[in-house]
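Curious: can you check?
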Amino acid sequence: MFKAKSKIALVSTTLIALMVLVGCGQTAAPTTPTPTPSAAATIDKKTISTAGSTALQPLVKLAADDFMAKNAGVQVNLSGGGSMTGLNNVASGSIDIGNSDVVAPDSMTGLVDHQVCVAPFILITNKDVTVDNLTKAQASDIFTGKITNWKDVGGKDEKISIIGRAASSGTRLNVEKIVMDGQKMSDAAAAQDSTGNLLTGVGQTPGAIGYIDAAYLKDTVQALKFNGVAYSADAVTSGQYPIYCYEHMYTKGEATGTVKAFLDYLMSPEFQDVNVVKAGFIAIDKMKK
């Protein structure tokens, strides 16, 4: 994909263990890596590209803006498209980093996983919906299309409109896995191409329900409790709130040069200690082991 000027030392075995212990929802947290002192990564090219998960975009954008400010002349190009788009593009070599809410499939060989944070997801509705809590069974029946009216879950007599994401979305895959036990989203669900568009759609459609990562929540919609538990960072880290995943930034082979320098900055205490929370995510080291 690109040629580096110098060979960079491998990261610590602890970080490798972190990459292997991948999970979503109720999966145990990976071991927190201890940074290994090494020479600074070489800035070997002026432009790098990253794409994929729109859920992870707020954090990656913060890192990109900081990194470009600290490295004059370097450009970090960032786009969305969904997790599978990011994975397919990094596997093909058309981008440098693929951002994903899900683990890369085994068929994508040669990819190296860099876990960067934990992303919590929330179920949201239009503000006209009177229901404020769904059980796992109720949410699953709504998203599969078995329940189509809010009166069947304690609300008023109103049609339920599902506004979701395209099949390439990691957020959708996580909701299907964690909330729906692997069942597929109803064909009646409207598919939006980004989390932002989904948020807008739910906010403007009476009776609508959807799902977003917590970083995108606005007062134009209402967040639902899940099994009686409201989302909070503490609820996630204590194991009470299960809708979350580990966020991944994949490279094709070991990261080197400017790509490694960017990932090193994103994972540095300088960036993580402030910006992970600022962007609405949870640091991996806060999760229960």
